[in-house]
Amino acid sequence: MEYPHQPVLVHTVVKCMVSVPGGTYVDGTVGLGGHSLAIGKSLTKKGRLICLDRDPEAISISKKRLAFLGDAVCVIKANFSDLDKVLKDLEIERIDGVFLDIGMSSYQIEQSGRGFSFQREEPLDMRMDPSGEMTAGNLVNNLPLEELEGILRNYGEEKRAKLIARAIVRGRRKKPIETSFQ
Q1: Residue 100 in contact with residue 83, Cβ under 8 Å?
Q2: Which terminus of the chain has a smaller tally of CB atoms within 10 A, N or C?
Q3: Every domain of the chain and the residues it spans
Q4: To 5 degrees, how large is the angle CA 101–CA 82–CA 150?
Q5: Protein fold of 114-174
Q6: Helix orientation angle between 34-42 and 10-17, rounded to the nearest 10 degrees
Q7: Please, are residues 126 and 139 in contact by the beta-carbon 8 Å criterion?
Q8: Beta sheet of 73-77, edge-to-edge order
Q9: Which element (helix H / strand E) includes 161?
């Protein structure tokens, strides 16, 4: 399978992160496994790589892509915010480095069908983990004006947050907002 997402700064990440080739490392946002692939190749037989992601599709792809590492790699569906619990469950007391590539990958934007892109009409989902209950559609159709404005201002850094929030509320009164084009 071809992997359309090309990870950035791979060699720099490996050079800066893998200081002990026999150490234990965490990729807290494994995605399609591009960075983990390079990290895994730089480890010795004693090295270990723990990979986490919330996206079940990313987990499936990265497990296949990293399978050649055998027992040296452990790919788990989990949020990096749960790293303490994951390490405890794996009985790992010490790690030598953590890598986080926060945000969406081009694969998720272009291929997921979850409404991350405004270039195609898709359901307004935007969940990194499709098993979660709250969709972007739920939020835009149900949040009060003030909360919508706060999200747009604080997370989207949108200067016209109030204007946009008002337009959303006006629009949803006529018809629920269900797609990325709306």
Answers
A1: no
A2: N
A3: 10-108, 114-174
A4: 70
A5: DNA polymerase; domain 1 (1.10.150)
A6: 40
A7: no
A8: 73-77, 48-53, 24-27, 97-99
A9: helix 161-174
Joined together, the tokens standing for residue 107 give 């694969």
Token match 């007391």: residue? 93
Q: Could you tell me which residues come within 8 angstroms of residue 173 by beta carbon, excluding any fewer than 6 positions away?
A: none
- What string of H, E and C letters represents the secondary structure of 51-93? EEECCHHHHHHHHHHHHHHHHHEEEEECCHHHHHHHHHHCCCC
Closest CA to 145 of 119, 128, 125, 170: 170
What are the CB-based long-range contacts (under 8 Å, 24+) for 164-172?
A: 168/140, 169/145, 172/140, 172/141
Spell out the CATH class of 10-108: alpha beta
Alpha-carbon distance values, 155 to 82, 121, 127, 148, 150 (Å)? 22, 23, 15, 10, 8
The C-alpha atoms of residue 30 and residue 130 are separated, in whole angstroms, by 17
Q: Which residues of the chain have pLDDT under 50?
A: none
Question: Tens of pLDDT along 80-120?
Answer: 999 999 999 999 999 999 999 987 777 777 776 878 777 88
Name residues whose C-beta falls within 8 Å of residue 81's C-beta, 6 or more positions apart in sequence: none
DSSP 75: E
